UniProtKB/TrEMBL annotation:
Lineage, broadest ranks: Eukaryota, Metazoa, Chordata, Craniata, Vertebrata
Pathway: Protein modification; protein ubiquitination
Protein name: F-box and WD-40 domain protein 17
Alphabetical list of Pfam families matching this protein: F-box-like
Species, as recorded: Apodemus speciosus
SUPFAM superfamilies: F-box domain, Tricorn protease domain 2
Length: 442
């Protein structure tokens, strides 16, 4: 009689199986059933399929990793199939103006067995000036708002009570949260071109750096929050609405770069020295070897891969850099290595830009969604919208675009292929917002 595998040996063998195989193994006998239900097996399955679910999935309807796997698989099936009964749309009431920014306070990625209710939890007191930005720290249950006069306020998300406040010397141009391993902090840029680093929730300034004097700047943090790219806001190619249309002609984009050749529009900071500055050294940063940069995005599957849209005076170009911090005992130097660069076709006039994986760039050009590799190979192009695209969401599972007519288009990545393949799934008609926007993958 052949010797039987013990639980430890079975666990090792089962670690190579997929979910369907584990379910089949569970039907063999009691021992196989117990091993196939192992928490570690289902945890590894979840992490292989959804790298973002690092925290234990304590959400309604998913108290174990096995339940999480099936709940999220069902959710993805619903998203891909686009059944009308799986979607709920509810307008956010109680506002007299437009909604400029959204942020999630809950630390849980999904709530599988709850239907959207849109119940108001709390509302802040009326502010002296309109709010223009809002970010959240879900693990701290903290919300941070910024108004048009540069007043920053931190709020307790559970009660709505004020935690702290700070006034900038000028209006705020950009805000980024930074959940750094050494502790969370807040990055804020103001219209005078200064970058502030603040503690949260106290909002105490730990460093300030003059980046681009008298020029509003944009901030874009890397996925691991170790880097922040700072670019001049007046060269931004974000969607500009005028008379119900989108200004994205290539002539206008090229003109927006003119008369800026003497100025730098791209600088990368290593965030750790920003949060822990040295008295005798400036923060660690480097200016990228390009002129007149505009939009930028980080590759989600790489710790420090940055794609930058810029101009070489003749073409619009996308250049990809790999950043590295060389650390010695008393000094940190930044090495920016160019990995690839390519000019965009004349037919593409980009106004939104995001990355997928480590090699793929998504661009919106008027009503078109276009995919390129970092080396310039055009992979796919979609012309599903009737009006210009105003917002773009991309993650490891899907892409969602929103257009000026309040419509949404949902795409799903085909993960069975070695190269990125995006499938156009279905169209959702608009709602009651003034402009369509995307802030969630669900």
């Amino acid at each position: 009689m052949a010797p039987q595998l013990g639980p430890h040996e079975l666990l090792h063998v089962f670690s190579f199986l997929e979910a369907r195989d584990l379910l089949s193994a569970a039907q063999v006998n009691k021992v196989w059933n117990e091993v196939s239900m192992s928490t570690e097996l289902w945890r590894q399955l979840c992490l292989r399929r959804w790298a973002s679910c690092r925290a234990f999935p304590v959400v309604l309807g998913a108290q174990t990793w096995r339940q999480y796997y099936f709940c999220r698989s069902e959710l993805e099936f619903r998203v891909e199939s686009g059944r009308p009964q799986d979607f709920i749309c509810k307008a956010i009431s109680g506002h007299t103006g437009t909604i400029d920014q959204l942020a999630y306070v809950s630390p849980h990625e999904y709530r599988f067995d709850e239907r959207a209710s849109g119940t108001e939890i709390w509302s802040s007191p009326e502010q002296p000036a309109p709010l223009v930005n809002l970010v959240a720290y879900p693990q701290l249950q903290l919300v941070v708002t910024v108004d048009t006069q540069g007043l920053i306020m931190a709020w307790k998300a559970e009660t709505g009570s004020e935690w702290a406040s700070f006034s900038l010397p000028s209006s705020c141009s950009s805000v980024e949260t930074c959940d750094h391993p050494e502790g969370p902090f807040l990055l804020v840029a103001c219209d005078e071109g200064t970058l502030y680093t603040m503690t949260v929730p106290q909002l105490q300034v730990v460093s300030r750096v003059a980046v681009f004097p008298h020029t509003p700047v944009n901030l874009t943090c890397s996925p691991d929050k170790q880097w922040v790219f700072v670019s001049a806001q007046d060269s931004d190619l974000g969607p500009k609405l005028k008379n119900g249309g989108l200004i994205t002609s290539r002539t206008q984009i090229s003109a927006s770069f003119k008369d800026r050749s003497h100025r730098h529009f791209g600088r990368v900071f290593y965030t750790q020295p920003l949060a822990h500055p040295s008295e005798d050294r400036p923060p660690v940063s480097t200016t990228l070897p390009i002129r007149k940069s505009s939009s930028a995005c980080w590759a989600p599957d790489e710790a420090a891969r940055l794609m930058v849209l810029h101009s070489d005076d003749v073409h619009l170009v996308i250049t990809t850099f790999e950043l590295k911090a060389n650390k010695s005992r008393d000094r940190v130097n930044i090495l920016a290595q160019q990995l690839a660069s390519f000019p965009l076709p004349d037919s593409v006039t980009p106004h939104l830009m995001q990355a997928h994986g480590s090699q793929t760039i998504l661009l919106t050009s008027s009503s078109e969604l276009v995919l390129f590799t970092i080396h310039g190979l055009q992979l796919m192009a979609f012309q599903d919208h009737q009006q210009p695209i105003t917002s773009l969401w991309a993650d490891a599972d899907r892409v969602i675009t929103a257009a000026l007519d309040l419509s949404l288009r949902v795409y799903v990545w085909n993960k069975k292929d070695t190269s990125p393949v995006l499938k156009s799934c279905y169209h959702l008609l608009g709602g009651s917002h003034r402009w369509a926007s995307v802030d969630s993958p669900t």
